[in-house]
Amino acid sequence: MLYVFDSNSLRVLGNYYPGRFPTFWKKFEDAVASGMVVSVREGCVVTEEGHKLNAAKIPNVCKHFGVACTNVEGFMDRNDWQF
User: Fold this and answer.
1) Would you say residue 83 lies in a domain?
2) Domain count, the chain
């Protein structure tokens, strides 16, 4: 599965300080290098926004276009990342 990270999820990742979570950042860098994390229109969108009826939120747009959507925790769960 390919993943596309929304900027609000990248801010969440900022809480995982590289000095405190070196194995997380190694795995994330490997995911980027392997092409699993991309910045294109295809893949699973990773966002911290929630679905809100009749709103212009990323999960709503993903649902409309049939694109998978998750948050950072879901990304780590789908890839069996535990620290």
Assistant:
1) no
2) 1
